[in-house]
Specification:
Shape: elongated
Strand order of the largest sheet: 3-4-2-1-5-6
Radius of gyration: 23 Å
Helix content: 25-40%
Number of helices: 14
Number of strands: 15
Order of helices and strands: EHEHEHEHHEEHEHEHHEEEEHEHEHEHH
Strand content: 5-15%
Length: 397
């Protein structure tokens, strides 16, 4: 999508209303445990401040269910941002209303205000036009830099664009579109995608869209067992979607038609129960014992997938290979992360589609070794499905 960005507009002396994704994890004491999302937004924030804009930031945090919830105030975020920028960040008491408007109108160039949690108002998620118009009235320019919420048509992402003349993408969204868009539309080949996760049903649209784009698809996660069962193989007590067996066979057929190599594991890690102390065994994919649960890809598959990754020029990964939260079932996922880091070092473009894959790469300590890690799990998934993201579609072309 060819959208206008922050680089295309003048912001000196203007009130710039920016939607960011500051939905960060907090502990019991309301201390931020990971500020990656705040750090990711800094390039756009600094660009506005350094160019003499007056910055009004808005975000949601958690799920307050449409009413003010003290534990989900954005005040800790404002404090952390203030430290990162080394300037004061004014914390507003709400995101709309007379008092907020007065604070905004009193701003000077280079100042920044953080509005209170948008989801303290039910109108935000309902994309209420009156609420969207009230938010829009605070700024003269609207910037969306919240890729993580771009797949939702909310008041602050889609509704607001109907009431502002200038609505552009921030640098983070621009970066997401550049990497994800290039992978889907102009990839350097060979282009492979690695898909994991527990259910085929959650990845049907991604699979079908990727059949038209990739040279090979590497499958992991619990959805492999639905493919196995569909081919008449024993799957023990592994997770299988019995109502998706025909679909699995159709997908395999479609891959053949499109000349896409669909790779399934040849060996798996199994255990009697999914617990930290479980006794893990590696078995052939065709010999999963009765009563055993498959929970990761095996060593033979890891090596095979590694070779595929190292021979590719573009690699896209969405979804873990196993239950990586438990060490015994994490080796497959970490092996993919290591192979991708190796591929990046050899000049390949490696893209992580957010969510669990991003968490796994972070756990493996390899976040800095990837070309791009998407900040939006749900948004990147819908983008890979070929769907329109309302928060981006609404911006100026």
């Amino acid at each position: 999508m060819q959208k206008k960005t922050l680089s295309d507009i003048a912001i000196q002396g203007k009130r710039v209303l920016m939607r960011v994704d500051f939905n960060v994890p907090l502990d019991e004491e309301k201390t931020i445990t990971d500020d990656k999302r705040i750090v990711e937004a800094l390039p756009s924030i600094k660009a506005v401040l350094e160019n003499g804009g007056r910055l009004i930031l808005m975000s949601h945090l958690g799920r307050p269910k449409g009413k003010p919830t003290p534990g989900l105030s954005l005040a800790p975020v404002a404090a952390r941002l203030s430290r990162l920028l080394e300037i004061p960040v004014i914390m507003a008491s709400d995101c709309i209303g007379t008092e907020v408007m007065q604070q905004v109108l009193a701003m000077q160039d280079g100042e920044v205000i953080m509005l209170e949690n948008l989801r303290f108002h039910p109108e935000e998620e309902a994309n209420d036009p009156h609420f969207a118009r009230e938010l829009a009235s605070l700024g003269e320019i609207y910037v969306n830099d919240a890729f993580g919420t771009a797949h939702r048509a909310h008041a602050s992402t889609e509704g607001i664009t109907h009431y502002v003349q200038t609505a552009v993408a921030g640098y983070l969204i621009e970066k997401e579109l550049r990497y994800l868009g290039k992978a889907l539309h102009h990839p350097e080949r060979p282009f492979i995608a690695i898909l994991g996760g527990s259910k085929i049903s959650g990845k049907i649209d991604v699979l079908e869209n990727l059949f038209n784009k990739v040279d090979a698809l590497l499958i992991g996660g619990a959805m492999i067992f639905t493919f196995f069962r569909a081919q008449g193989m024993a799957t023990g007590k592994s997770l299988v979607e019995d109502n998706k067996l025909e679909l699995a066979l159709n997908l395999m057929e479609k891959a053949k038609e499109k000349n896409v190599r669909l790779l399934l594991p040849t060996d798996v890690v199994v255990a009697q129960e999914i617990t930290a102390g479980a006794n893990c065994q590696k078995v052939s994919a065709e010999a999963i014992p009765e009563g055993m649960i498959g929970a990761d890809i095996g060593p033979e598959t890891r090596e095979r997938y590694r070779q595929e990754i190292l021979n590719a020029q573009t690699v896209l990964w969405n979804g873990p290979m196993g239950i990586f939260e438990i060490d015994c079932f994490a080796e497959g996922t970490f092996a993919i992360a290591k192979a991708m880091a190796e591929a990046t070092g050899s000049g390949a473009t490696t893209i992580i589609g957010g969510g669990d894959s991003a968490a796994a790469v972070a756990k493996a300590g390899l976040s800095g070794e990837m070309t791009h890690i998407s900040t939006g799990g749900g948004a990147s998934l819908e983008f890979l499905e070929g769907k329109k993201l309302p928060g981006i579609a609404a911006l100026n072309d």
